[in-house]
Amino acid sequence: MPPNPSRATIVATILAAGKGTRMRSRLVKVLHPFLGRPMVLHLVDAAFRAGVDRVVSVVGHQAAEVESAVAGAFRGWNLGFAHQTEQRGTGHAVASALSELGDAGTVLVIYGDTPLLRSQTLAQLLTAHRKEGHAMTVATFRAADPTGYGRIVRDASGDRILRIVEHADATPEERQINEVNAGICAIRRDLLEPALARLEPHNKQGELYLTDVVELLATSGEHVAAYTIADPVEASGINTRAQLATLEEIALQRMRLTWMDRGVSMQDPGSIRIDAEVDIGEDTLLGPNVQLLGKTRIGHGCRIDAGALLDGCELGDFVHIKAYSVAAGSRLATGAEIGPFAHLRPGTELGEKAKVGNFVETKMAKIAAHAKASHLSYLGDCEIGRDVNIGAGTITCNYDGVDKHKTIIEDEVFIGSDTQLVAPVRVGRRATIGAGTTVTRDVPEGSLVVTRSEARTILGYYDRHRLPRLEKKRAQRAAAKAERAASIAAATPETNADKEGT
User: Fold this and answer.
1) Which of 174, 181, 222, 330 has an alpha carbon within 20 to 30 A of 424's alpha carbon?
2) What pLDDT, in 10s, does the model give residues 436-463?
């Protein structure tokens, strides 16, 4: 997003240096997936959508991995990275980013573990901050249980914030305050650096708190204001895997409602998963337990039946994905149809109204318009032309134990059932391959290829061979049954009635 020359530059600083020990993970917290992408990316996206000109991420633990994730997702955007090699508090983290702020007039500070934060909220906070010309604007909300939050201490008029007191440092009276710090603030750049230089670790944790900047500015006569967040859940941070699951479900509920408002129908919406970067066309129907992952794009009027999973796929209009099919990295043109129980692996491309049926697996397969493989086939590393029919049990034998090879089937070919195409091989246009054939050489256009051994008929085979074996088995079973019955009778005690013969 290019800077707006009509106003001073706004730089967002995202605090993403912490490890997140309560996640109990080898992966740094801000890289844990949230709706299909690392949670820190949600904050970068929200900041740019709110109108900031540059985003600076403060990194520490697994710095290279965090930088790579952000830079890869926002290639070409105005990004910066600051290293906080030693975690000494939020004030120290922001101070680490000063050299990356450039000519910023306003600095927006947000945390990398609050993925529910919306761009609209950030934009409104920035508007209020700049319109009123405040030195600093702090996002706050009223908490039913303020335990653990920094308390907002206001002046007698209630107009200005005097200080923010962390829960651990608050007096019993201050702990009764239910207005708390949401962890987001906007501050004038010219006031930020001198205030950070004055920070001292006057707290039980021995850290430099960004929240202490509030008191430093207030005692200097600067106006520190509050911006009340309408929905406090936006400010919720993630510290544990349980919190991650809880907030992700909230995000999913919002996502489902958004898509239904845009014309997407859902059966059992609560069972459907939709990642953040998915796009769905109007009049699409999603069945129960559907999962739409990654950067999946779905056209208009599609139908995705129960249990289907699409990851990074592109679907044209009126595509039908039948129940319990799986597709990844695949492209399906208008009217294509797969499943049920089909598996499209990466590199699969289906033309208009092509069909891949039940228990068919594809990989790096380009299947042209109106071609069909209705059941029980493996099609890997192949190109299949228009109007081709692939019979049940067909296999493109693409791997020789060392290398992969390609099979090319030209237009209007008919492949009979139980055919093996040993690549590299080409089947010419309008050729026919008889059922049970193993194709090892190129097939000329319009020809028929059949490889079958001559059938032999042996008369009387049942009476001479099968029947004697069956009768022997029946006799063995009868003898075993009689032996078991005799053993049971011998083990049963005689009753008086037995002895008297009655």
Assistant:
1) 330
2) 999 999 999 999 999 877 878 889 988 9
pTM above the 0.90 mark?
Answer: no
Identify the active-site residue in 32, 375, 405, 465. Answer: 375
Element (H, E) at 190: helix 189-197
Dihedral sign from CA coordinates of 234, 240, 243, 248: positive
- Name residue 34's beta-bridge partners: 37
| 167-222: pLDDT as tens digits | 888 899 999 999 999 999 999 999 999 999 999 887 667 789 899 999 999 999 99
Q: Respond yes or no: is residue 375 known to be catalytic.
A: yes
Q: Cα separation of 502 and 492, whole Å?
A: 17
CATH 3.90.550.10 domain locations along the chain: 9-235
Kindly report the CATH number that applies to the domain delimited by 264-449. Answer: 2.160.10.10
Residue 196 is encoded by which pair of tokens? Answer: 């950070």
Instruction: Report the alpha-carbon distance of residue 54 to residue 13 in Å, rounded.
Output: 9
Options 3.30.530.80, 3.30.70.60, 3.90.550.10, 2.10.109.10; CATH for 9-235 is 3.90.550.10
What is the Cα–Cα distance from 215 to 477, expressed in whole angstroms?
Answer: 94
